[in-house]
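Reviewers asked in the last cycle whether our approach scales beyond single polypeptides. To address this, we selected a multi-component target totalling 694 residues and predicted its structure end to end. The input consisted of the following lines:
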Amino acid sequence: MVSYLVRRLLVGLLTLGLITCMIYGLIRSMPGSPLDTDPAMMDPSKMPSKADIERMRSIYGLDKPLHEAYWQWLKNAATLNLGTSYSQKKPVAELIADRVGPTLQLSVTSLLLSYLLAVPMGLYATVRSGRPDERGLSFVLYTLYSFPSFVAALFLQLLFAVKLDGTWFELPLMGNHSSGYEDLGDMAQAWDSFQHMILPVTCFTYGSLAYYCRFVKANMEEVIRQDYIRTARAKGLGPIRVLIHHAFRNTLIPFVTLMGLTLPGLLGGAIILEGIFNWPGMGLLFFTSILGRDYPTIMSLTLMFSILTLSGQLLADMLYAFVDPRIRYS
Amino acid sequence: MNKKDRDNVVVSAGFWQQSWHRFRRRRLGMLALYFIGVLSVIAVFSPMIAGTKPIVCRYKGSIYFPCMGYYNRTWENPIFQKDRFRRIYPRNLKRKDPQSWAIWPLVYQDPHRPVRRGEWEGLEGNPYGAQGRPTGKNWFGTYKTGFDVFASMVHGTRIALLVGFVSTGIAATIGITLGAIAGYMGGIVDLVISRVIEVVMCVPALVLILSLQAVIEEVSIWNIMMLLGLTGWTSMARLTRGEFLKLRETEFVAAARCLGASRVRIMFRHVLPNALAPVMVPIAFGIAAGIQVEAALSLLGFGAPPPNPSWGTILNSGRETLQSGYWWQLVFPGMGIFLTVLAYNLIGEGIQEATDPRLADPRN
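The resulting structure, written as structure tokens, was:
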């Protein structure tokens, strides 16, 4: 186990090295003052000032030879000195810290919601397997799974924010709170946040809900045919006890692995959905920094997303070994 | 064995034939396959379905195919530019050569520009804004300054299918080749390739494409396809590697080796056809994912450059005017993306079940 862990960590480091090389390559190839060649981008507010460029050059070491400069950038990145954003004139680390909250607000809610709904639905589908209601449910879930979330987001916005505007079902179009949010009382603030969360959370949830539900059912189908399930039934246990204690517990291994894969993603936010709902999270930060050609922010976020994906895979493998005593890495 | 006996031998169905037989029994899978078939026909013949350039015309004594210009601008004969047609064919053809004739596309609408008044005799110009709702003339309504949604969607089919096929084609080539080499060679080669797979798996494709947008001035649709292909091959490589690991120990491989077949020949002629089935599934899902990513990029305004409309571009225009409630700019392209993704997912699942040997019917 320990040797496996060490090997995985080494591979992880190697991967990280490769990714940082790639990101540094992007930094190197970015135009020094990107905007003076492109007349469409001659917007003075998006133009980095002379001082900005100088600071950037020293932080990224663009004035030094490649290997030295890369090493310096690595050292800076490791101490969270990720540079200063052009457009917001703030350290990038600070910007990111501001955005973690709203991102987690959406992702954690949707994760909890989808797990809470997916497990009972998956179990129900297993029990009713082959009946019309199960087939209907499976069909709906499959359709939802194939429905791109950004299309759903636009449809929901059109329906609830535009077509139902002025009725009881009206929901806010975008943002995470209304304009007069600070002046509201506690209860009103909570209600306002809740209303703003409904559409984004729905879009975040339904796809993964459908996926997890199918996942639970597929694993249950396999387990339910095992001999020990027949044994449990034969010794007279009730159907619910068999289903949950004997069958479902044995499907936990792949389930936990899946959870591991998704956990770090919670921090990453979703670029497209946050963009559509104008939700001030990580994804929107990434999106706006691309529009504003805010290189320090883009590079820091790319680095962060890569590390998150990497740790997700590592976590999944670790959890796998932890949950299933039969698995021994060597 | 004499000839008569040989004719009486019943050849049992091969693996692919059996799989196809099982696939055909899945009604939804077949429906999806038909749908993709129809879409492909629409994509290939898009300029003949909707356009403002004649499919065939006779002009000044020669036959021309101006509609080819929709595939590639240079395929349109320069004579029309020289004669100052300014992309308006019906009026100019008659005026500049009264003897001319032309066969027109089914729908006289253009994906690149709004149709103006009087271009086609008795045809009103395209309305826009709130007047642009679907009518008998603009079947799916109009967007922006009067662009026809139907014509744009017909031509957008080409981009959607192309992105899916090209990016997945690249991914499949890389994935199958590397997976085959890793699985068959084993040892240090396998170790290196497996690590490479792990590295690439960690690269988020969308983030990479978006980062690139900030560095490269103009990102073309081909760049996007390349990047999607270069990052999306890992699952296919892993599956191929697994199959090869299993198959290289089999008797038929040993037999081929005894006959002196080269490594490459054994890998690609003998083992690969037997390892292909499980790889087909991620290919179908990969096409669906490619189409989604392209649409999402266009929706964010980072997609194919303007002259070529993609479904995401129309969706983006609908998003910009969302508060005016022009539903047709969202519903038609949105449903187009959804149905295509659904169809590929259904095909993928159909292949999965049809090629799964555990589900094989022992009777056939």
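Confidence is low (pLDDT under 50) at residues 32-41 of chain A. We regard this as preliminary and will revisit it once experimental data from Aim 1 are available.
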